[in-house]
């Protein structure tokens, strides 16, 4: 008999036998799971409902993904909704960013931002770019910053090698600065040739002694790089005020440990403050020390808690003289992000940027320090609308981190702290990093900056001013419980300025 015919005739028997084996194995697995669930006592649901109880865990894990794609409305998801993410994606890809039919923004909802359009907007041929602003004019090496929009701190370690490379190259293409974050200066930050803000965190990664104190010689080496334009001393960040940086051991590779000056394969947890900075006076001492070592503009990044501290800071500066002031203050709102933070801090600590930024600007103005100290706004500012509000409130510059993560391809998978980021941005798994091409993503970073600038200029021109730095509080309205929205100038009246 032909072997092929024999196989064909036996096929039903083979399929039947295979089916029985599969069913049998499935039954054995179910029985095994039933026995395991019934015998364990750590999970009550699985014990009381063996096998079926496991579906609760599965559906809980899948729920966050199904909500994102199928159930959440365009403007209700947190921390960033679908409309915000899609706007950044289209901007980064250089696509069409117009929308049709009408706004999906609930315009009467409390907290909605509205801008006051001028009856006669500025025509494009009458507009001109915002003038460059000098930071640290009295420093040996002041920094003349051209870009209003820049990249906020994301540490090498918290984000991957290709992500840092893409940001460095993209920042150079866009002509903006890149903040290193507290993880130290890596070769990948320098690779693109962009301007760099070197951040000193509470652990002083990259410029630390073995005991965690400042290594002045190492700081001089870092500052000697021409690309390093400014030094930022991080007191706190929006996602976790009062808690230092957290980098899980799985992300502390040999290279990252070497750059930071710590041991590999161990959790990297920063102190919750600089040990040598325990008072306002000691803070100004430390700023002066760092500025003296580097010769470059030196400022602080902080989350505002009690606004009274701002008054204390300004009084101490006036007592010492304006040269003792930080060259800039980066105001991080409580809505700031992080790769890993305790829920209690990320949800309920510090003032949101809409309260903190006007408080800082007004405190400086009351004490005659507004022109001496530049103000940088940070905290969930990823669209032109939010950034335009920041300039209305008085910011000199705006920085964003998560906006640029979206530009790199972040899908808000919420796995930054697990080393399993599916887009390769916050993981050191080489297989997952392969999808992030630094050259291609650098173009997206530059596209995003260009679209942000364009959107900001459109809002400014519609308000009747030539550029975003000319925006004032009267140009922005906040929808509240009243019949008519309240002007930002009425909500936060600009104070009378004193002379330093």
Structural class: alpha/beta
Report how far the terminal alpha carbons are from each other.
Answer: 106 Å
pLDDT < 50 runs, ≥5 residues: none
Gyration radius (Cα, Å) is: 27 Å
Largest sheet: 8 strands, parallel
Give a structural overview.
This protein is α/β, with parallel strands linked by helices. Helices cover 41% and strands 11% of the residues. It contains 17 helices and 15 strands. The protein has helices at 3-39, 44-48, 54-71, 82-93, 161-174, 187-191, 216-223, 254-260, 280-294, 308-320, 343-348, 353-366, 384-393, 402-408, 430-433, 438-462, 488-491, and strands spanning 113-115, 133-135, 143-145, 149-151, 177-179, 195-200, 228-234, 246-247, 268-269, 298-302, 328-332, 374-378, 397-400, 476-478, 486-487. It has an 8-stranded parallel sheet with strand order 4-13-12-11-10-7-6-5.
Key features?
single chain, 500 residues, alpha/beta, 8-stranded parallel β-sheet, 3-stranded antiparallel β-sheet, 17 helices
SSE topology:
Layout: H1 3-39, H2 44-48, H3 54-71, H4 82-93, E1 113-115, E2 133-135, E3 143-145, E4 149-151, H5 161-174, E5 177-179, H6 187-191, E6 195-200, H7 216-223, E7 228-234, E8 246-247, H8 254-260, E9 268-269, H9 280-294, E10 298-302, H10 308-320, E11 328-332, H11 343-348, H12 353-366, E12 374-378, H13 384-393, E13 397-400, H14 402-408, H15 430-433, H16 438-462, E14 476-478, E15 486-487, H17 488-491
Parallel strand pairs: 4-13, 5-6, 6-7, 7-10, 10-11, 11-12, 12-13
Antiparallel strand pairs: 1-14, 2-3, 8-9, 14-15
Helix pairs in contact: 4-14, 4-16, 5-16, 13-16
């Amino acid at each position: 008999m032909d072997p092929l015919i024999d196989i064909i005739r036996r096929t039903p028997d083979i399929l039947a036998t295979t089916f029985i084996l599969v069913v049998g194995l499935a039954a054995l697995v179910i029985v095994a799971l039933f026995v395991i669930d019934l015998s364990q006592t750590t999970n009550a649901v699985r014990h009381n409902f063996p096998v079926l109880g496991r579906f609760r865990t599965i559906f809980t894990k899948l729920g966050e993904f199904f909500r994102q794609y199928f159930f959440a409305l365009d403007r209700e998801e947190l921390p960033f909704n679908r409309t915000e993410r899609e706007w950044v994606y289209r901007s980064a890809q250089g696509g069409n960013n117009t929308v049709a039919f009408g706004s999906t923004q609930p315009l009467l909802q409390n907290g909605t931002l509205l801008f006051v359009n001028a009856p006669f907007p500025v025509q494009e041929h009458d507009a001109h770019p915002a003038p460059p602003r000098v930071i640290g004019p009295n420093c040996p090496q002041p920094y003349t910053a051209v870009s209003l929009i820049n990249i906020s701190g994301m540490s090498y370690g918290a984000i991957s090698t290709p992500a840092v490379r893409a940001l460095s190259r993209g920042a150079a293409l866009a002509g903006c600065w890149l903040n290193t974050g507290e993880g130290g200066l890596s070769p990948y930050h320098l690779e693109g040739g962009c301007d760099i803000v070197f951040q000193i965190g509470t652990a002083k990664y990259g410029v630390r002694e073995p005991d965690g104190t400042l290594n002045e010689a190492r700081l001089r080496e870092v500052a000697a790089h021409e690309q390093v334009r400014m030094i930022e001393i991080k007191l706190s960040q929006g996602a976790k005020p009062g808690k230092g940086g957290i980098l899980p051991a799985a992300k502390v590779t040999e290279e990252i440990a070497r750059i930071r000056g710590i041991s590999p394969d161990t959790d990297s947890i920063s102190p919750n403050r600089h040990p040598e900075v325990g008072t306002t006076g000691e803070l100004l001492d430390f700023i002066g020390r760092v500025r003296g070592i580097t010769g470059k503009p030196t400022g602080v990044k902080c989350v505002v808690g009690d606004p009274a501290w701002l008054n204390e800071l300004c009084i101490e500066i006036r007592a010492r003289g304006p040269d003792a002031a930080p060259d800039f203050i980066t105001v991080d709102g409580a809505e700031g992000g992080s790769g890993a933070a305790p829920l209690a801090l990320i949800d309920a600590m510090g003032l949101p940027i809409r309260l903190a930024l006007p408080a800082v600007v007004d405190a400086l103005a009351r004490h005659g320090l507004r022109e001496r100290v530049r103000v940088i706004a940070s905290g969930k500012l990823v669209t032109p609308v939010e950034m335009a509000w920041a300039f209305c409130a008085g910011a000199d510059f705006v920085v964003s981190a998560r906006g640029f993560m979206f530009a790199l391809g972040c899908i808000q998978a919420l796995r930054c702290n697990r080393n399993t980021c599916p887009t390769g941005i916050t993981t050191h798994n080489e297989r997952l990093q392969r999808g992030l091409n630094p050259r291609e993503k650098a173009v997206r970073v530059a596209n995003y900056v260009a679209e942000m600038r364009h959107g900001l200029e459109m809002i400014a021109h519609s308000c009747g001013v030539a550029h975003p730095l000319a925006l004032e509080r009267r140009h922005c309205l906040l929808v509240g419980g009243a019949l008519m929205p309240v002007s930002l100038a009425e909500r936060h009246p600009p104070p009378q300025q004193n002379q330093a």
